[in-house]
Amino acid sequence: MHWKFGTMWLELWLGSLLLIFARFSNAIDAFVGINIPTNLSNLPSPELVVGILRTHHITHVRIFDTNPLLLTALSDSGIEVMITVTNNEVLAIGESPSNAASWINTHVAAFKPATNITAIAVGSEFLSSNPNAATFLVQAMANLHKALVASNLNDEIKVSTPLSMGMISKPFPPSTATFNTSWNSTVYQILDFLKNSSSFYMLNAFPYDSYVQSNGIFPIQYAFFQPLPVVRQIVDPNTLFHYESMLDAMVDATYYSIAACNFSPIPIIVTETGWPWSGGANETDATVENAETFNNNLVRRVLGGSGPPSQPAMLLNSYIYEMFDDEMKPGYGVFFRNGSSVYDLDLGGSSGNFSGGFCVARKGADPASLQGGLNWACGPGQANCTAIQSGQPCYLPNTVMDPAYLPEVQTRVLVGSVHQHLDLWVPQEVCHRHIGFLNPGI
Ligand SMILES: *[C@@H]1O[C@H](CO)[C@@H](O)[C@H](O)[C@H]1NC(C)=O
Ligand SMILES: *[C@@H]1O[C@H](CO)[C@@H](O)[C@H](O)[C@H]1NC(C)=O
Ligand SMILES: *[C@@H]1O[C@H](CO)[C@@H](O)[C@H](O)[C@H]1NC(C)=O
Ligand SMILES: *[C@@H]1O[C@H](CO)[C@@H](O)[C@H](O)[C@H]1NC(C)=O
Ligand SMILES: *[C@@H]1O[C@H](CO)[C@@H](O)[C@H](O)[C@H]1NC(C)=O
Ligand SMILES: *[C@@H]1O[C@H](CO)[C@@H](O)[C@H](O)[C@H]1NC(C)=O
Ligand SMILES: *[C@@H]1O[C@H](CO)[C@@H](O)[C@H](O)[C@H]1NC(C)=O
Ligand SMILES: *[C@@H]1O[C@H](CO)[C@@H](O)[C@H](O)[C@H]1NC(C)=O
Ligand SMILES: *[C@@H]1O[C@H](CO)[C@@H](O)[C@H](O)[C@H]1NC(C)=O
């Protein structure tokens, strides 16, 4: 079904505004983002991807490469973006500072400042698949950092490398965890780099895997951030910290491992975590209900604002794995490729009580972009577009793209995160309280 952009009033969900206020009452910088598998054979259109992100209040994304169409679509969206140097690119960048400089020019500088790139993940568990190329990894990180310094982008953009829990030999109890000693020198160099460049440690941590491998030792509630009866609580015998979730314990194991290398705490960001909703016949806990429980409880836990027991001031910021199903590791996708959700997930953690708002097409806005935005908003975006249909109270005919035709409105709200094609208005009398969302598209 096609929707007429000439109806002029475009509904806007004010959730993002509420989110901004919610963030001040909570821990200001706590967030849960999402991984976007950009290396899919058929990634949904970048406009659809950005529309989904906005509908679900997603403020942080990590993409698995540097997909230029998506980076462009994310411009002026207010969404923070972590990009990835693919494992295949690490060697060349580690070998030559000029390769690093040209990578930064092509994949970063060309998109700044419109696209808010704030981090570069160098490889993806590179050490697990390339154990003999560790020196290239460390050198690639250093070369990229130098290139950022040369471009004066090093304050805004941090360089790090996602490491798996497999780097830690025995993660429980957390207080005695250490990195696998065969990685001593590599880990030391990585930590030294992170410390010197005020960056953070990127951790991929999947409670699902540990839960499955534990063969029933850990109750599923522990993986789900749910309270346990006193007799079943998970306690570190050395520190007597009570661990309320497996993710807390995994992150703490990493903090203790860093400390064992004689480094003061380096902030950890969980670059991948999640729960599959489908799996093999023997994966009985990979259900939609469990994936929904894990991810929504993760959001609640993280936005609650405290860190793990040993580092209560360090936020547990995390990126959910992942937005769409990936052929290589299927079953984790939170959204189908048509934009509908596999299960409910709201990363804003807000109550869903929005006052209605509308936005108005800016003079000179590209009609095709607006049409695309409307098609998305009134279709997969699930905005209630009834009111702007012909014969309905908010319908205005095609000719009124010009703001001069606007009825009197009392409040004008400009939201920085909304695409520049649109100015936003909140009419307080006309069409009050219609709730919807618009992705203006590009
Ligand atoms: C980009 O993100 C950073 C970190 O949250 C923020 O401080 C900055 O204002 C953002 N920049 C833009 C242009 O949105
Ligand atoms: C440590 O890493 C080495 C090399 O990857 C591996 O063979 C060994 O099993 C690991 N040790 C532990 C305790 O995980
Ligand atoms: C790694 O470091 C630990 C603790 O400092 C030490 O005991 C161990 O021998 C080292 N291993 C290697 C392979 O260097
Ligand atoms: C980090 O800083 C220390 C002290 O300034 C220096 O010795 C070391 O080489 C630096 N390491 C890296 C990876 O830049
Ligand atoms: C399911 O079975 C496959 C093949 O036997 C095995 O590789 C996998 O680890 C099993 N998964 C679970 C969750 O037990
Ligand atoms: C996409 O990249 C991610 C991260 O590097 C990797 O885990 C996944 O296997 C890749 N998928 C495909 C289809 O290449
Ligand atoms: C989207 O795709 C899923 C899975 O293929 C399907 O179940 C669902 O009905 C589709 N939704 C829409 C709105 O087409
Ligand atoms: C939602 O709005 C209604 C009407 O303004 C109000 O009565 C209700 O308390 C609100 N609910 C929440 C959860 O804020
Ligand atoms: C959509 O909005 C119309 C009024 O514009 C309202 O009558 C209708 O109930 C709404 N539909 C839904 C599903 O909220």
- Poorly predicted parts: 1-27, 349-359, 397-442
CATH architecture call of the domain at 15-320: Alpha-Beta Barrel
Which CATH class of the domain at 15-320 applies here? Alpha Beta
Structural class: alpha/beta
Tell me the quaternary state.
Answer: single chain
Number of helical segments with 4 or more residues: 13
Largest sheet: 9 strands, parallel
The amount of helix comes to 25-40%
> Which strand order does the major sheet show?
6-5-4-3-2-12-11-8-7
Order of helices and strands: EHEHEHEHHEHHEEHEHHEEHEHEEHEE
- Which fold name corresponds to the CATH topology of the domain at 15-320? TIM Barrel
Bound molecules: 2-acetamido-2-deoxy-beta-D-glucopyranose
Radius of gyration: 23 Å
Written overview of the protein:
It is found in: Cell membrane. The two termini are 20 Å apart. The protein has 442 residues and is α/β, with parallel strands linked by helices. The strands form three sheets. It has a nine-stranded parallel beta sheet. The protein has a four-stranded antiparallel beta sheet with strand order 1-13-15-14, with no helix packed on it. The protein has a domain at 15-320: Glycosidases (TIM Barrel, Alpha-Beta Barrel). Strand 3 (60-63), helix 3 (68-73) and strand 4 (80-85) form a beta-alpha-beta unit. 45% of the residues are buried. Helix content is 31%, strand content 14%. The structure holds 2-acetamido-2-deoxy-beta-D-glucopyranose (NAG) (9 copies). One 2-acetamido-2-deoxy-beta-D-glucopyranose binds at residues 351, 353.
